[in-house]
Hints:
Blueprint (H helix, E strand, L loop, with lengths): L1 H42 L8 H47 L1 H20 L1 H31 L2 H53 L1
Amino acid sequence: xxxxxxxxxxxxxxxxxAGAQCLTVLxxxxxxxxxxxxxxxxxxxxxxxxxxxxxxxxxxxxSGEALSTFEISSQFFIDLLGVSLNIALTxxxxxxxxxxxxxxxxxxxxxxxxxxxxxxxxxxxxLASGIQHSKVAALISIQSLWDQxxxxxxxxFAEAKALSSDQADKFMRASYNYKIxxxxxxxxxxxxxxxxxxxxxxxxxxx
Length: 207
């Protein structure tokens, strides 16, 4: 009976997770559609914002960063629901099969993960903001590179190329630093839970 509960709850957890992934696509696409249309409508109310430079900046934001922002934020909130259900069902399976002691050791790792996220909140927000700004700057620099490639001199093209390369490097470094922090927080619960599980297991076997 315990084995049946274990596999059934794990299967249910993955089914909820798969459904959450499908829902993410719908939420992100619809949110981006309404946001982009409303943003253009609001900008159109102020004729002073109709310059070519503002048009390029707005287009770069809507087509680049805004779309990815909605994809990431939708993924985050839907994943939060899916992960919560996965954790609840998985912990129930662990309690049924492994008992309260081992399940408690695993839960300690999850609690540490929640604490780490709250502790690194400011750092996460700073890195996420840096990614957004550097990505927009990189997209705009490509437009300048295009113009200089066709209409500028060799010197101006070389300068635009160097600027575009620098902006792309900044975006890469910001994304890389964010990914490192993300993976540290993701791996920490497992690294913490493993010695706790081993300690509890040895003590239970010894007793």
